[in-house]
## 1
Amino acid sequence: MLRLGWFSTGRGPGSRNLLKAVMDHKESGDLDIEIAFVFCNWDNTEEDNPKREQRKMFFDMVEGYGIPLVTASWKTFRPDLWEKDQEAWRNEYGKLLRELTGKYDFDLGILAGYMLWMDDETCRQYDMLNLHPALPDGPKGTWQEVIWQLISEDADRQGAMMHICTEEWDRGAALTYCGFPIRGEGYDGLWQDMKDKLSGKSLEQIKKDEGVDEPLFRKIREDGAKRELPLIVSTIRAFAEGKVEIRDKKLYSEGKRLDSPYDLSEQVDASLR
């Protein structure tokens, strides 16, 4: 059985949906896993806490599943150090995180909507996976930045990947991914509309005028977002079934190191049908 450490900021429905999806698969017998703990970087006693109600719902869900809930408020932890030296603060917070979570035996950490950067030592000591909303050779940045970059490059594919957390933030090796075409049915007309708009104004102006509601942007986002949850589940399943494993921050399958990330596009697409 694969034991997971679950790290989440618990700030909205996305955090709950992720946890529920994995637990639904576990309870149906589809995933041979146990979540050893859920760690949250808020504890809901903070005075300045705009997501208090959302976080309470998340905490209630965790406790309803009988999963140990571990919290350490980043807002109230060493504010003096935060003001002086944020890197030193991150290292000290990382020590606290490892003290609180280190007593739970777990094989793999999942960053499931965890909004704090992990310190270097935690990245070295724990094997943790994070979602990035692009293909392994795709753009870096937020999902918004990724999609605008794809549009600016006239790209023909998009996807999502799970990468290992390393000291280089958002630069750890991609371990698994899924991809899909952003050309053909449902897309070609939107690309033509974008081309027509670009004949009269810049992409920057289109971003400013329409933002995330621009139809091509929105279509790429929708098709990517619906694959993120299945990719996380499929990735966990690949580890739980022993198809892949991490050794020294590298991905192995059947005892051999893989030179490229594990393609789960087929499994992800099948789950959408």
## 2
Amino acid sequence: MRQLPEVEEHIGLYHKAWREYRRTEELGDKILYDLCTKEFPGHLNKRQVYTKVWFIGHTYSAGLSRQIGKGATLAVVNALVTAEKTDQGISKIINVIAEIAEPLSQDKLTLIVEAHEKLLQIIKEKVGVRLFSFTSKYLHFHHPYPSPVPLYDGVSQKTLRWLYGLAEYNYRRFLDRFWQLYKYLLNEGVDATVKGVNRFLLRLSAQSDFKKWLASLGKRNKD
């Protein structure tokens, strides 16, 4: 694995990204955490589950409509409610995540990956699509703030690919690279958190070096 000169150059952005998050989006996120963990923690009441799926899908652009089409939110809701009535049980998966706290470790990441894969498969069986991003976000917000579950999205995936030179086509590989960055920041004396690293990845995606790389990648794909 190569060095991370991009991180060395932009490490100050981590602190800036965290300050921006605390000033702007943290309060809204805490409302969503409370909605999922305190107000509507269950997975049997269809109206409550719909509310959680709708807020997560729209607030964090989980791409449900793009990947599934019309009626996407209801399709996912039906998958979750149906599974909760069986031995699979969404609550069983969520309860495993609830026991995890930062700092991250390899053992904790293994539990997160396993929970993600179980929920991913439950939803796929009903809707026919593997919703990597939405699944990570549903797990993330069903843990009290601050959540140790890294958020998977297209921007973060591409930013890690820029840093490490590898494509991240699934959540397991994404977490492998996320873990490397998380450890690197801690070793550099940064008080890194999962939420902070997620925000840092988004902040890095706004840098000119990343945009140049992304443009060159698009050009190579066309060629």
## 3
Amino acid sequence: MLKTFKIVSICAAVAFATALAFAGEPIKIGVAGAHSGDLASYGLPTLKAAQLIVKDINANGGINGSEIELLIEDEACKPEIATSTATKLVSSGVKVVIGHICSGATKAALPIYRDAKVIAISPSATTPDLTQSGDYPNFYRTIGSDAVQARYVVDFTLHTLKAKKIAVIHDKADYGKGLAEYALKFIKDSGEAKVVLFEGVTQGAPDYSAIVQKIKRFRADAVIFGGYHPEASKIVSRMRQKRLSIPFISDDGVKDDTFIKVAGKYAEGVYATGPADVSQSPIGIEYREKFKQSEGKEPGAFFDNAVTATLALTNAIAKAGSTDPKAVATALHNEEVDTPFGKIKFDDKGDPIGIGFSIYQVQEGKYVQVQ
């Protein structure tokens, strides 16, 4: 029988925190992300993870007697909506936010949170300069950056697939283009292969035959794609229809069951990076079971990272004794918390210590970890 970790596994410090400053008032936590549109499969698992954990915390008395109240906002991964979403959450009195999901939307929202001194923690926004630039000291994430992810992609493409002539394609957005640029740099620095094509494609285009023709014309022996599943599914489908069977390697924006559903048989054999497999983690098992009991299906992309983000944030609030941004930040940097990825905390830039990537491949209609 599955053991329930309850409040100990959720937030061990809650029962022992002293001198808390909530005075019985609800603790408002924002949850912002794509809850509708093409990329909802990335945002909805995060929302559900937050709801499951908060339900457990509230059922065990909240944090020092104060219940958590989630304020939920959908921005469909669109930067122009994310700014108004962030403004609305700040106006509602939120001091901490779980989100956003896509890097572009996150980047649009962060200046608003920064100016309002609101802590934001994302399970999935991987653009490196969100933390590395120092412009957003209020931002944290529970996933590695694109610099780390691109290194995994390139090393796998060079050393496992032995590719020598690589086409690097991206969707022109912050996330996809950023990852592709890192891949380009790492390939050039390696001296082991040549980038024969580096090009962006238009998001939402009905057909990508032109880029597929270029890949064929330049005789690429592998494709690295930076972006999300809507474009990736169309590109790889067209490649296979044109009998271009070279390896297609992508990122965690493609490591999602929706990609497999949309691409169908053409998804078979595609590689993608993703957070390390934590399917045997007791905390991961606990919340995946709760998700399946609630939703009747497996959780989607970034669910484990979202569980981790929610656990880290609620633990930091408990340790801090308030939602004061400085106190919460101190706890995030210094207090380890048990998560599906093991014990983690955050470095001085807000990146997680203890979370990495793996390589997955679609095999018989499912992503399987191969490295």
## 4
Amino acid sequence: MKELKENILAMEEYAKENNIPIIEKDSIVQIMKYIKDKDNHVESILEIGSAIGYSAILMASCNANVQVTTIERDEARYMECLKNVKKCGMEKRINVVYQDALELNLSEELKYDLIFIDAAKGQYIKFFEKYKNFLKPGGVIITDNLKFHGYVGESSKLDKGNLKSLVEKIESYIEFLQNNPEFDTQFLEVGDGLSVSRWKNS
């Protein structure tokens, strides 16, 4: 456990030095709490957006039965993720896939208890639509960065440009979740904003 803690701290330092966005502590604590709750029966997790493996390793550390598949399209981050997974001795429990998540074709038989979306924010709706069919009954889709540093809800005040466009896409995603006839979504004011979406029929 001590070694894992040291590795996690080293990853936080690396992310800071190399300007790599990793999940905020409050958010990952909330997700880990959900995974650890025995009533939620979380054993299989699909993560879209590995970065350096920080959240995948912490999610897998919740319980010895947890298996994580994590997808990353950036080669440098993928390599760093592999290195960190190995350093934490989790190669058998974390499968790192080097691919663009929108181009990846998973086997239709694969189903997950939890799907975590933390990749290109402008593609959130596409990720949700593509991967919702890989959710087990009773499972949830959790999405991070829905406040996006406080900009979400303030897009009308932003000058035209990449930031405004990105914030508008996150706002559209929130609207998409609020009006989705298939899912009940809870929005949590934790970290940079999380949503937890569950099938209405589960």
